């Protein structure tokens, strides 16, 4: 009796955070349902964005910030130690390194930003930014969010807040440094923290980030077999919308900040 055929191994590159791993596992689950003959092994990478937490993203400079959360994963692809890499699409530069391609864009979840209010205010019944007192300190690491906050809430003080979602929540809950923080709603939901969201910020007045809500999967441009495999998890409507947004951002010479 012949032994069962060994599964072909696919090596996946991911950041280490809980949210990144949740997104990577989502992609793997989608592929496993379509390709049960494959085995997926995840390699976790540290990125500059994960390591440098004491500065605003813009302080790292344009050349560094363009691949802040992606370069380490892309290096693994180019070194052929990974078959594909999983990213939050909003973190991906609009110009990819030579030899790499954005091969899949998953179905987009709600792209809105959300506010999480400090417990001391919630005890008083405050659950929205408008209800916070003048001079409140709002935490964010995004220039886009900072600009929108300054426009709509000119009395607020904006303070840099870096780190993964668990770190950001800890900085909000355990200290008095922030009255509220602004986050991507989809990230909190994927991280099973949706119950911490206090206010969904309306898209017509608080524009969301390019590609926010979708997962992007990157691989080598000459790996036709992997490209064809990843096409099966692309959501065409989401891909069209996100590619249009990324095209606009490219022509505006913008980034993920």
Q: Please, could you describe this protein's structure?
A:
By secondary structure, the chain is an alpha/beta fold. The protein has helices at residues 18-34, 48-51, 62-65, 71-78, 119-122, 143-152, 165-173, 185-190, 224-231, 236-251; strands at 8-15, 38-45, 84-88, 100-105, 113-117, 137-140, 157-160, 180-184, 199-200, 215-220. Strands 2-1-3-10-4 form a 5-stranded mixed beta sheet, sandwiched between helices.
CATH class of the largest domain: Alpha Beta
For the termini, the CA-CA separation is 58 Å
Unreliable spans are: none
Could you tell me the number of beta strands? 10
How is the biggest beta sheet arranged?
Answer: 5 strands, mixed
Number of domain units: 2
Strand content: 15-25%
Looking at the structure, the CATH topology of the largest domain is: D-Maltodextrin-Binding Protein, domain 2
**CATH architecture group name of the largest domain:** 3-Layer(aba) Sandwich
Query: Biggest sheet: strands side by side, in what order?
Result: 2-1-3-10-4
The CATH homologous superfamily of the largest domain? Periplasmic binding protein-like II
Order of helices and strands: EHEHHHEEEHEHEHEHEEHH
Shape assignment:
elongated
User: Based on helices, strands and strand pairing, what is the structural class?
Assistant: alpha/beta
Measured as a percent range, the helix fraction is 25-40%
Instruction: Figure out the total of helices.
Output: 10
Keywords: Porphyrin biosynthesis, Transferase
Function: Tetrapolymerization of the monopyrrole PBG into the hydroxymethylbilane pre-uroporphyrinogen in several discrete steps.
Domain Porphobilinogen deaminase N-terminal: 10-227
Catalytic activity: 4 porphobilinogen + H2O = hydroxymethylbilane + 4 NH4(+)
């Amino acid at each position: 009796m012949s032994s069962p055929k060994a599964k072909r191994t696919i090596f996946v590159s991911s950041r280490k955070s809980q949210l990144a791993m949740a997104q990577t596992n989502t992609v793997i689950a989608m592929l496993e349902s379509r390709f049960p003959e494959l085995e997926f092994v995840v390699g976790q990478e540290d990125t500059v964005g994960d390591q440098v937490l004491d500065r605003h993203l813009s302080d790292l400079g344009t050349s560094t910030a363009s691949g802040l959360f992606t370069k380490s994963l892309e290096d693994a692809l180019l070194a052929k130690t990974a078959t594909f890499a999983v990213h939050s699409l909003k973190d991906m530069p609009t110009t990819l390194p030579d030899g790499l391609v954005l091969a899949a864009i998953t179905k987009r979840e709600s792209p809105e930003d959300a506010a999480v209010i400090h417990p001391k205010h919630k005890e008083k019944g405050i659950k929205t930014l408008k209800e916070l007192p003048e001079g409140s300190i709002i935490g964010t690491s995004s220039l886009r969010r900072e600009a929108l906050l300054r426009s709509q809430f000119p009395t607020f003080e904006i303070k840099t807040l870096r780190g993964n979602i668990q770190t950001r929540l800890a900085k909000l809950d355990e200290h008095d440094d922030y009255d509220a923080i602004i986050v991507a709603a989809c990230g909190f939901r994927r991280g099973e923290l949706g119950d911490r969201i206090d206010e969904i910020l309306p898209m017509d007045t608080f524009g969301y980030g390019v590609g926010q809500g979708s997962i992007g999967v990157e691989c080598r441009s000459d790996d036709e077999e992997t490209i064809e495999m990843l096409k099966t998890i692309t959501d065409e409507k989401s891909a069209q919308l996100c590619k249009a947004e990324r095209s606009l951002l490219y022509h505006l010479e913008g980034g993920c900040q």
